[in-house]
Specification:
This protein has 164 residues and is mainly alpha-helical. It is built from seven helices and four strands. The protein is elongated.
Length: 164
């Protein structure tokens, strides 16, 4: 009768435990962290591209309302009087999950934001002011950078799990 030898299954059991971690709550937290990082990068890009109005001294107007609008107070904060910095703002954003897609909605509540983004007619309705496309350009730029960013984060995450 032939002998099949000995087999140690401890390494396979450790591999199974590590693979189980990939299906747990840690992975959901990782995906949410990725969504928040991409959102923070998008906010940084769009804020940098947003124009600031230039006004004559002494007329009481100050520029930067549109730029500050990207990290505007939420409805709850407006009532309580608090404000946030950009990082805290991104961390407070609601993440919605639809299947394997995580979404964060970034908006600018300033009334004239769409007119600056896409363009508008002049006051006398005889000309056109071209759009600045600060969000559109920032989205396209981030879209091309996202795979590399996510790959780096994923390799770090997998390294933490499998190099224990």
């Amino acid at each position: 009768m032939a002998s099949w030898g000995n087999c140690d299954f401890r390494q396979l059991q450790r591999l199974q435990e590590k693979l189980d971690r990939l299906q747990g709550a840690e992975t959901i937290a990782f995906c949410e962290a990725c969504a928040k990082e991409l959102s923070a990068r998008l906010l940084a890009k769009v804020i940098r591209r947003t124009p600031v109005g230039q006004y004559e001294a002494g007329n009481g107007k100050t520029g930067g309302t549109l730029r500050r609008g990207w990290t505007a107070k939420s409805h709850h904060e407006a009532q309580s009087g608090g404000s946030k910095n950009a990082k805290a703002y991104v961390n407070s954003l609601v993440i919605t999950q639809s299947g394997d897609t995580y979404q964060i909605e970034i908006t600018n509540p300033v009334e004239y934001a769409p007119y600056i983004e896409f363009g508008h007619r002049t006051r006398n309705h005889k000309g056109w002011v071209p759009g600045r496309f600060m969000l559109t350009i920032s989205e396209k730029e981030l879209e091309s950078q996202a795979p590399k960013i996510l790959e780096r984060k994923l390799m770090q995450y997998l390294g933490e799990i499998f190099n224990d």
